[in-house]
Amino acid sequence: MQLRRRLIGVLALLCVLAMPGTVAATPGITAVGTVDRFPQEATERLGPSFTGDGFLTRFSGGTLLPVPGAGQLWQVYPEDSGRRTGVLVRDASSRQVIGSFVIDTELRRATVHASGGGEWLHVTDGGHRVFVLGYPSRLLEIDASTFTLRDHGRLTALPVEAPFQDPLLPASLTYDASTGGLLVLYGGIAASVANRLTVVQHVDLATGARRSRIVRACTGPLPGTDFSSSTAAPEVLLRPDAVYVTCQTTGLSLLPGGARGLVVRLPRAGLFERDGEESSVPAGGLVDTALVDPHSGRILVVGYFGEVTVVDAGAMSVVGTFRPAVGAEPRIGPGLDRRRGRFYFQSDLGFGYVDIRSTPLSVPVGDSSAADDGQERIVPDGSRVYVLPGTAYPGDSKAARYTIYSVAP
Asked: Got the DSSP string for 309-368?
């Protein structure tokens, strides 16, 4: 592992020299408040086993899961026993605690990274239904009005549920409003023979029926189930005529010329046919994650070494790149405001943003006084943006509270 870190550091330094990061100062970013990860209400409502000093709790306890359709912000707390998860519910406008509940399983984070990743693996239907994953890959539906739970069973890309460790793990969940179902992206377990497979699956939430298809162009490790991912789940872009998956091509991901980013277009007509049509466009180097902006049809492919490649899905072309970090081994907390079309970042450059709907792309702007490593997903909520500095890498620590920023239009 130490050799791997040194090799990655050398490669990252080469990337820094090739693409230096810069940020322009802006007066429009103002810190206006904080949210504690471990407030007294969490201990009182959930109990001390959810807010103690355990390994799981300190890595990811009290981090946010936004439910914008219900006007709520959830703070999620893994019990250190690994058997239960507590949720503290806040009103998104007032930030006051309005409820709490406990789930009888540990919830999955968005990556398989040892640090716990940077968000909870989840999706909402745009309203009050929240879908999360328990162990082992149990699809759970939570009603944000009543906090009642429905178990949809175990997610698997295999024809039948295996009694052993599934070789393919869910990497992301996407709600498809056109079908009322979920699209699940699966990738092979890191360092396994299945680590070169990417599978897209449709889950009918009413009947449980599932249809799957291997994405042939994705011949490398899938972000989210590989070592290169440590932040957010790789998002899938849905358009009326096609589905867009971000994955990687074949290669040893730690070596020059290894795994490379790829955006693949899958027409909805024939989506689940084995030989269904595919087209693709290269999208940078080794991938950490991908965020999507449905309004503009743009996909932001966030590289492991800090570069962000922006792909226009309609044209299937790269419209630009930028690098919101300067360090040799950048650790970037990403986020996307789909209302404004802004990519937010927390990094050694500070807290800032890039407007990603313009052509050419705007210059990164930000507050350099907030410079710090980042990992946790940034949560925009109207004019406010929630940012948690720091990481859960060995020797590091995430901040004890979120900083709330007001960002000018």
From this structure: EEEETTTTEEEEEE----SSS---EEEEETTTTEEEEEETTEEEEEE-SSSSPPPPEEEG
Predicted pLDDT of residue 57: 84
CA dihedral for 279, 123, 186, 162, sign (positive or negative): negative
What pLDDT shows up at residue 76? 98
The torsion angle over the Cα atoms of residues 31, 23, 234 and 255, rounded to 10 degrees, is: -140
SS3 59: helix
The β-bridge partners of 354 are 343
User: What is residue 163's predicted lDDT score, i.e. its pLDDT?
Assistant: 58
Q: pTM of the predicted model, to two decimals?
A: 0.92
Torsion of the alpha carbons at 166, 168, 173 and 178, rounded to the nearest 10: -100
Direct distance between the N- and C-terminal alpha carbons of the chain, in angstroms, rounded to an integer: 44
Is beta strand 24-25 parallel, antiparallel or unpaired with respect to 242-248?
A: unpaired
CA distances from 204 to 178, 183, 194 (A): 12, 9, 25
Q: Is 234 helix (H, G, I), strand (E, B) or coil?
A: coil
The ranges of the chain with pLDDT < 50 are 1-19, 253, 256
pLDDT tens, 214-264?
999 999 999 999 888 899 999 999 999 999 999 999 855 455 457 899 999
Residue in 173, 49, 44, 166 with CA at minimum distance from that of residue 108: 173
Alpha-carbon distance of 78 to 190, in angstroms, equals 24
Structure tokens at 160: 């039948």
d(CA 76, CA 138): 17
**What pLDDT score was predicted for residue 201?**
98
Residues in the chain: 409
Tell me the backbone φ, ψ of residue 291, rounded to 5 degrees. Answer: -115, 145
Q: Are 333 and 388 in contact (CB under 8 A)?
A: yes
Residue 21: per-residue pLDDT:
60
